[in-house]
Write a structure and sequence with these properties.
62 residues; mainly beta; two-stranded antiparallel sheet; 0% helix
């Protein structure tokens, strides 16, 4: 059984699925032959990979 590493009041970001920062290759190479990359972070979670849970909806009787 694996221990839970995230607090109960957080959940994975639905847009990045917990992978908030990625490196994207531009297809161009620099003068030394290495590929140029861009580092991009998720705009929804701002690079944390998690979002706070929403409060549960309460049932209202009329």
């Amino acid at each position: 059984m694996m221990p839970e590493t995230r607090p109960a009041d957080t959940r994975l970001c639905r847009d990045c699925d917990g992978f908030p920062t990625v490196a994207i290759t531009t297809g161009q190479t620099s003068s030394d032959g290495t590929r140029q990359t861009l580092t991009v972070t998720c705009r929804t979670c701002y690079g944390t990979g998690t979002v706070p849970r929403r409060a549960a909806a309460r049932e209202v009787s009329a």
